[in-house]
Structures are given as structure tokens and as C-alpha cells.
Amino acid sequence: MKHIAKKIINGSLKPLNLEIVQALNSEVDGIHLFNDLPSVIGNPAPVCIDVGANEGQTIEALQKKFLAPIIYAFEPSSETFQKLKANKFGPSVHLHQMALGQQKQQREFRNYSNSTLSSFLELEDDPQNQYTATGLNNTEIVTIDTLDSFLQQQQIRQVDLLKVDTQGFDLDVLLGAQQALRSGMVKHVLVELNYVKFYEAQCSPEDIVRLMLDNELYPIDMYEKIRREKTIAWCTALFGRRRSAAGAACDRPAR
């Protein structure tokens, strides 16, 4: 009976290019990232690491969606950090004017006219790169630490969410967190995957995904997808740890 009703309704919806489909039981919809995060993380006061904080967009979103998040945010650009610091986030947000990477060092950082594109890397001169003509304001030498070192210094024992958005430098950040990833201290990772070459010597999405899987962090979904023709140019990918064998099994559609 349900099958017949569905067929009749779909027939009436066809001229509108609409169709009824089965919605699987899930704690995520895979569409709205910050709507999904509270149920995925399952902690109203998560410890979050925001690498590449820019002017605080992610901090604001986390504070809206969680009751009492504790956030450690990193932004290397001195000019952008001043804008970040001007926000009144409250005492649970800890701001650090520095970068995270694979090893401790000093390195030249490139400040572009669009601060969301600023990076350690030079923009790629490629026809597919829509940002190739973006102007360079200046460069500066910044300090890089590793996440493993920072977590040890701060005596942080668990990270509910590690967000990395560093414009082609993301793999370096994750390689500097190998101990935290390997130990299971990091529960979820939110990272940008670039399938178009925006920067010279940028990391590959395949290497990031491989590193996640090697550390038992599995894809939950991809958000903020930007397409070029039919394929994804870049997106934000959310990874998490699977529930233990004692937990509930993964939801599967009924046959």
C-alpha cells in the first residue's frame, strides 16, 4: 500500500522535478555543518582547536552551537590577528598569534589582499585557480609550533574537534599532531580538501584522507562543497572515530 501511494505521489510531483525518497535514520544531515556538529561531538562543552582562525568565523559558529566550548585558536598573520583579538569571545577562548605545522621553526608567511587566502604558500598561476590574480599585501616571519607540543604544554588530554583551514598547509599541521592523532586524543577533525591546485606545493587531499584513515578517523561527511562543472573543486571534510564494538552498530537501510 505504501509503495502504491508513493508511486502516485511521485507521479504528481514529476512535473515539478520533485521526488519522495527514503530518509535514513542518522544523527547528521550532511548538509549543514554546524547543525551536525553538536550531535556528532555529543559534548556541550567540547575542547576545540581552531588552526587558521582568520577573524574568528569558526569561533562564532561554535559558540552559537555549543553551550560552553573551550577554544584554542591560532592565527599567524599579525594584521588579521589584531582583528581576531578585537572580538569579545569571552574567557573560554584562548587566542595565539602563531602557526602550527610539522616542526618548530620560523617561516615566511604571505598576507594576501583577501585574508582568507593568506598562506605560507604562493598562489598557483593556473587557469583553474580563480584567485591567481589576488594581490600580495606583504610578507612576515612567523613562529610555527607543533600541535603535539602545544597540547603537552597546556596539559590538554582530549580534543573533541580539531579544525584545520590553512590554505594548502593542512597536511603539515596534521603531521605535527601525529602523537595526538595516533593516541586517539583527537576525536574529530574538520579539514579543507582542495582538488584544484590553488597554491604551489599545496598538500593533496589523498594524503590527508590517508593520514586520517591510518589514525582510525573515518569520513562523516563533506560540507561547503564548491564545484567546477560536475566535480568538487574544494570542500570541508569532517572525520571522526567509530563507536566501539560495545556501541550500537552503524545504521543501515532496511531491505
Word description of this protein:
The chain has 255 residues and is an alpha/beta fold. The protein is built from eight helices and ten strands. It has a seven-stranded mixed β-sheet. It is globular.
The low-pLDDT segments are 21-25, 245-255
The beta-strand count equals 10
Strand order of the largest sheet: 3-2-1-7-8-10-9
Summing up helix and strand content along with how strands pair, one would put the structural category as alpha/beta
Nearest-integer average pLDDT: 88
Q: Give the strand content.
A: 25-35%
Fraction of residues in helix? 25-40%
Instruction: Note the overall shape.
Output: globular
Count up the helices: 8
Rg on CA atoms, Å: 20 Å
End-to-end separation in angstroms reads 17 Å
Biggest β-sheet: count, sense, barrel?
A: 7 strands, mixed
- Helix and strand sequence: HHEHEHEEEEHEHHEHEE
